[in-house]
Fold:
Amino acid sequence: MTSPDDNNRFDWQAAENDLTDPNGPDADVVDLDAARSRRGASVTPDVDGSDLADEPAARRLVDSLAAQRSPRFTVAGLQAGKRRPIVPAWLRSRAELRHAARWTIGHLFHAGAYHLTRLPKYAGKLAWRAPRGTGRVLTGWGRWLFDLQGEHVRQSVADKGDAELYLKVSRLRDQRVRWRGFVTAAVVLGVLPALGIAYALAPAGARYATLAGLLIALGVLGRPADKPLLDTAVVVPRVQKLTSDVVVRALGNLSITGINQALSKGDRGKDWFPAPITRDGPGWRADVELPNGVTATEVIEKREKLAAGLSRPLGCVWPEGQPEVHPGRLVLWVGDQDMSKARKPVWPLLKAGSVDLFRPQPFGTDPRGRWVDLTLMFMAMVIGSIPRMGKTFALREVLLIAALDPRAEIHAYDLKGTGDLSALEQVAHRYRAGEEDEDIEYAVASMRELREELRRRAKVIRELPRDLCPENKVTPELASKKVLGLHPLVVGVDECQKWFEHPEFGKELEAISTDLVKRGPALGIIPVFATQRPDAKSLPTGISANASTRFCLKVMGQTENDMVLGTSQYKQGVRATMFAWTDKGTGYFVGEGADARITTTVNIDGPMAERIAARARTARETAGRITGHALGEQPAKARALSFHLLDDIAAVVPAGEAKVWCRTVAARLVELRPDVYTGWDGERVTVALKPFGVKVGQTWGTDPDTGKGANRGGFERATIIAAIAERNRKRDAS
Structure:
């Protein structure tokens, strides 16, 4: 019930009193249930709402009777519910079960070895405590023999002066002592001598075992209450149990208006938890239904303050949203240990094992210590973060995973120039470290090769029989056939912004890279780009928007976050800005068809990477897959970069020729440098000019073969001169 007029509320209690009061105005006895039914019916509006308009505001029902009833179980409601797994996750995962079993065995072995080495110490403790244990046994026997346990009862009876009761108690005590004395005499005179004779006649081993057992028993009985016999083999950290009160109190410290208003109205948060708080791996999981109007994003933004409210290290507190439920659903996971300091499971590929890039491979672990898989085939990947957060380590791990598949061809480019990817040099088909002109020229020549390889692969797949290639993409069987050349080809570029910002070749590298990202995955080419400046200039939109796999470590703002993770991820609560400086190697991973997951990569240092790469080279040598740089080869067309396309076109198109066809330019270029431009045609010239901003359109000219005028694809010479001037300006500025 409600009334729009607070000063004119209807008093139902007074009305009922009037109806039932025998001294009331009508003095009639009224059936309350019937009266209430009539009142409910009287305020039910007709279809046109006329009754509602006539009813006084103070007696108008806002919620229907059905809406006021408590919800009941329905089939629809049960169907919408989320079923919890019958078998725990760690039992359903063979890897997690193996890890749990390995940890348990290791723990038991450690505890056993720890106590085994301390046996002499424990024996000394028992021998030292045995006399005290003997004294406790004799003292206890004496108290039992003389019934000293009942002394206080007899004393209290004597103090009362009840002689008859005292005599009864005394006679009962005498009977007990007499019987216990007989038992003691039998033990001392019969049992103990018999045991002594049996001990003397027993073998030496049995005597020693009996003596040791007696010593242990007396030592245990003589143990002080505050000093245990065994030392602690494993010190388990004591952490506060996560309860609803703890979570609500921590949320109340975040200064979020909606939460504060709910708490100020007396809401203690008991209805905020749609599921019980449970143990989830090495920590606690709490599903929280935040108050109306509060989003999970508001809580995620204040992760540091939330950790302070929970009295836990920042690396233990990981709030996430569940936008698939609704924006106000928060999943709070609180670990027992700081994620950056907790012991990580051993990477399965560290010491042994090969890789099939068509299958998921372990890439990192989530806060619960579970492996997060990465499937490299049919994807393009971008990695972004601020400097010193583990971006290069993540890229190196991806390339090492690829290297462990002997079929994979590795192209590694370290534009930072520090040699962080040098471990891949012994297996890479193409490798370069640095950003000097010769390094960029090497990369351009290699990427031009890849562009040609992309076209070749498309033609091969197009011409394959349908039964061998039903989906028009590379399969594991096709990748294993050397004759087809459809093996996985992985391109890893660290600090890729150095390519795309280059004044001369930046546009061409961007065009080739974008083409690889869009068409390469289906053809077995896997591009991976890493940058510390994830913006539109450093990571072109054509690359960032088409990458299917993303890994974003700590970044500083929304723009960088969404450039790596995808548009609107920041608004949905997936914010890599929340990571702290200590969260190195930890970021949001988007891939494998799943939502963004917090993932920590494997910490593979330089020597470890060298050993893994050496193992990969051995496998490649066995399979006969060592090629390119690993054999000392260079890109076949590297020398072509000593010349520049724009300058060559300006040389073959004289100043008096204002417009020219692309097919004509191609023929002249072949004549100018046959070792460089052989095989070029008009279409190839059109594609090559696109990165320089030279527009090719229909151009009127005379066909030299027929002497007739026609429209063909061509351009104006002035645009070439303008492009050369722009290139020179950028070169001078850099």
